Amino acid sequence: MAAPVLTSKPLLLTSFICPFVQRVRIPLNHKKVDFSTVEIDLTSKPAWFPQISPLGKVPVMTWSEGGKVQTVYESLISNEFLEDAYPSPAMLPSTPLERAHARIIIGRFDSQFVPAFYKLLRSATREEAVETSAVLVKEVEFLQNNISPTGPYLMGAELTLVDAAVIPFFIRLCVVKHYRGFDLAAKFNPRLASAFESCLKHESVASSMYLLEGATDFTAELIKAYKNYGKEPVDYFN
What we know:
Distance between the termini: 45 Å
Shape: globular
Number of strands: 4
Structural class: alpha+beta
Oligomer: single chain
Number of helices: 11
């Protein structure tokens, strides 16, 4: 694959499997940013990839500005950048305290839920799986106690960066259920379950769930893509 030619139009380096990429696609879609994409095979990265991605990971946004290559990476930082660079529609609440609250939820989810998600997928024993599943349940309970009581989205009437941070991992709970037999979504209370469904129906989220050429079933493709994490299915919960 030849290196992309950069222009003033943002280029997003993506990978279908990656929830962190989907985190960034959601605000890009919601803010109607004109961007292009290049799909990266993370098992066989192109030779030019390290020149654009300093950490060797996706997502990466890059473009040319004033003759210089500009690069933004890491999903949560990228989303904060998008909020600053494309302020309308806003994806953080209007008051400083509400914005701080949103960032607390995002930060805790990223530091607690996300590592447990991957740890459960890689669990090699029932004991490890059960212990890790308890962390996920605890973090879901925290989320349920701290989101808007109304909705339809996690923080209320509008889609926010909280939804963008959380929903890509909720979408991939089918993978945990398939490979480890743990159905975390079944433990959502009605309010969280409703917010999840509302997000899935939102155009900005729905359009972030793309398929690679030749694929027809998003969930089936996700399960196939995560085989390197889950190996063979082992039900530790029945």
